[in-house]
Every structure is written in C-alpha cells, then in structure tokens.
Sequence to fold (515 residues):
Amino acid sequence: MNSWLAQHQAACGRAVRRLLAAPLNTLLSLLVIGIALTIPAFGYLVLDSLRQLGHGAAGAQQVSVFMQLDAGKKEVAEIEARLQAAAPGRWRFVPRDEALARLKGNEGMAEIVASLPRNPLPDAFVVEPPNPAPEALEVLKKEISGWPKVEHVQLDSAWVRRFDAFIRIGRLALGMLAAVFAAGLVAVTFNTIRLQVLGHAAEIEVARMIGATDAFISRPFHYFGALQGAAGGLLAALLVALGLALLAGPVGELAALYGAQFALRSPGLAEVAALVGCGGLLGWLGGQLSVRLSLRKFD
Amino acid sequence: MIVASNLTKRYPGGLQALHDVSFEISAGEMVCVTGHSGAGKTTLIKLISTIEAPTAGSLLVNGQNLAALRRSALPFVRRNFGLIFQDQKLLFDRSALENVLLPLEIVGLPYREAVRRAQAALDKVGLLERAKANPVALSGGEQQRLAIARAVVNRPAVLVADEPTGNLDADSAEQIFAIFESFHQVGVTVVIATHDLGCIRRFEPRVLRLDHGRLL
Fold:
C-alpha cells in the first residue's frame, strides 16, 4: 500500500515537473482546453439563469378568465358560484375598476389611461387551480370558456411552456456542443501526450529493458493528462466567472428597463468542481488512449 | 540458473543470428561470450535478458521457461538482470545519481532508501563524487561505470554485459573488468559478451565461443 502510494506520488511529481519544464507549451494547452470548456459552461449558466427566470415568474400556473364588457353583477355572481361549485383551488375576482386603477399605477400609463373615454378593461377572475398540470389546465380552460358571458380564458402558463421548450432546445444544442468540445479536448490531450511520449522515448526504452511495467511507464502520462485537463477546467471556471462579471452590469440595466429583476448566476463551488473534474477526466482519457497507442511502437 | 536448449533466432528478412545454441550457466559463474563481430553475441545477450524472444528453442531462468510467460510477467523477470549495454543507454536529461535511481523507482523503493542505495552503488564504481554530474560530462570509462552502477543498484542475481569495454582504452577496460570480478566474487552470476581477449587471459572465465551463430 505504502509502495503503491509512493509510486503514484512519484508519478504525479514527475507529471508536474514535465508540465513545468515546458511552461509555454503547457500554457498554450491550458488555453485550448480552458476555452473548449468555457463555451459550454458559459452557455449552461446563461440557460440555467434564464430557466430560473421562467420558473420564478408570477402567473406560471394561473388561468385568467375575462368577462364580456357588458357582463353585470349578476353574471359575475353566477361565475363566482360556478367556480365555487367546481372548486378549482384558489381564485380571486379582479373588478374592472380595480384593474384600471392598477394600470394607472404603472409608470407612463397614467396619461394614456386618463385619455381613454371609458374603462376598456373587463371584469376578470384569476384562478389558481390545485392541479397545475398542462392537460388539467387545458380541460379547465375549455370548461370555463363555455360559461355564460365569458369572453376569453387565458392560460398564463402558455408562455412559460414555450419558454421551457425553448430552453430545452437550447440545452440539447448545448449538450451537442459540449460533446464536440469534449472530443476536442481529448484530441488535444492525445496529441500533447503523444509528443511527450516521443520526447521521453529514450527513458521509456531503458525503463522497459530494466524491468518497468507498462503501468509504471504510463502512470506519469496519465497524471500529466489529468492534471492538464483539471487545470484547464479551473481556467475555464475563471474565464466563465470573469465573463459573467463583465456581463452582470449591462444585463442588470437591461432587466431594469423591463422592470424585471434578473441576474446571471456565477458558477458555484459545485460547478467549478464539475468543470475541474470533467477537465481532469477527459484529460486522463486522452492520456490513456494516447499512451496505449504510443507505447505499442516500443514493443 | 540459465539453461538454453536449441536456441535459434531468425530476424525478419532472413538473417539467422543463432543456430541451435545450447548451454547452461550455473549460479555464481562468470562466463564470457566471444566471437567475431556478427557471430551472434549481442543476440544471445538480448535473448538471455528477455529483451528479445527466440524464434525456436527454450530458455529457462531460475527454472522458469521464458517462452511460457505472459507479456505482463516479463518486467518482473527482467528485474533479475542487471543490464550493461555497449552504448550504455544513459539518460542525459538527469544527473548520474538520478540515472542510478531509475531501477529503484521502478521497483517502488521509498525515495530515501533509494538514494542511499544509489549512492552506495556509485561509491562501488568510484563515481560518488560525480553523483550530481550530468552523464554528458563524464568520460567514456566513467559512463560505462555509471551504467554498471545502474545495473547493480537493484542487486540483481545476474549481470549481463554486451561489449562493456568496446569503446574504452586498455586502462579503463581493466577497471571495468575488475568491477565485474568483484561482483563475481560476491556470488553474482556474470555474463559478458566481449571480444577483449585480455579479459579472458586475466580472469580465466568459462568461455562460450560463437561462430556464425553456432556455439563452438
């Protein structure tokens, strides 16, 4: 066990020395790996921020019921009674006067509202059904549409669903992009390690003749690939954090213009760890493939 | 220790380097393999040290038939041998001490213990004060002694040398043979391929004479 640990320690040390021995090469490889990981990681965080924006938005599971403009108190009471009977969760009545008052309160709307000859808004109900599944909402919408004096029933969740679909496509595209970049990372490591093996040909030849196992010879190269990948992952995390920090100001301003609160999320500790881990794993994989193929010529 | 029966080696392209060679070397023996250049000395050394496999025939080392071994077992067999090459095969990207440390790293000896043993090996061949030097800075004789230090540091049962004095002047050659003799005296089996007849006159070892791939 001790000897095993010492062997790994020595191999890791050798890998670090080899990385440091050619700082320019190492730096360039790190940049390539870092950038390859930055693009999907950045996309993931932006999409994730957008997804949370969609979920956090009010009205995700609401159904708005708009009455006809000529509906009177009697008809409103009728709908209230029917909602009570159908018991679709919580609901709230928004009288047309209240809606107009609220609209007036919105910035820049007061003048427009004041210029209107009469209140154009209908009475409305905002219903929050207990079952927010899209199919159940569809059924509810159909039912309420048939009630007297109901002009229009709107599923406020519709845009959230569209938005979700959009995010899903985005994620799929991102996944494919990430796969392509991961393959690129493996290829970059493969090539670096191949050059490393060629550069250490004399050492490998001698080590083999005096009784080194393949594991002994390969180990430093595996560490080399894994360390290089992990460092590339760390660099990617830094680049993503830097990019998001630079974007935070403009995005905040844009969101404020729409009266919304929205901020791009910075990578958390778990995500940084995932980047470093992915980089390390892919680097190790590239090293593994490369060493296995490169060592064949020494047989 | 080493039993060769009907060893034959044919290289791709038809060159027949060894024909039907049989011999036995007992533990602690000192053996010189001689013959004209191209007689098959180097091939025999490579077969004995398992760097190459015979085309036909069998080779037993410590009772183990090398032909029956799996490829993954070869490194462990090779650790029984201390190999000295005519061209030394030293590594010029590290110091003399680090060259000698390599076999000990391979077997996974703890670093401190390894350094202690490497220094002892360097001392044995008279190179302790050059431990930090790069092999490039050493003379031909010193480089060969360094190669010997690397070969013996792991205390192998068999020392196998291929033309160890090929490029050396008489004095340096003398020193090298004296070192081999000292290992032989402490019980190490020594097999040397050489055409240096001075060695044979001086130590009177058993001689295996090869001629065009056949044992005379």
Q: What stands out?
A: Residues 170-185 of chain B form the longest helix (16 residues). Helices of chain B lie at 41-48, 74-78, 96-107, 111-124, 140-152, 170-185, 197-203. Chain B touches chain A through 26 residues (CB under 8 Å).
